[in-house]
């Protein structure tokens, strides 16, 4: 493998790694959103019990 080939391989590897990081961050934000929705549901359910 030549030096240019090695640099291209490293660049491709870095790009793939960056894509993985981006996908994981998106997934984490979806998880956080789901947790927030669940928390809101619990809060509204408990407030309904208080006022019922």
What fraction of the residues are assigned to beta strands by DSSP? Answer: under 5%
Number of strands: 0
Helix content: over 70%
Distance between the termini: 74 Å
Report the total helices: 1
Structural class estimated from helices and strands: mainly alpha
Extract low-pLDDT stretches. Answer: none
Overall morphology: rod-shaped
Mean pLDDT figure = 83
> What are the secondary-structure elements, in order, as H or E?
H
Radius of gyration: 23 Å
State the major sheet.
none
Verbal overview:
With about 50 residues, the chain is mostly helical. Helix content is about 95%, strand content about 0%. The radius of gyration is 23 Å and the shape is rod-shaped.
Defining key terms:
52 residues, mainly alpha
Compact description:
This protein has one helix at 3-51. It has 52 residues and is mainly α.
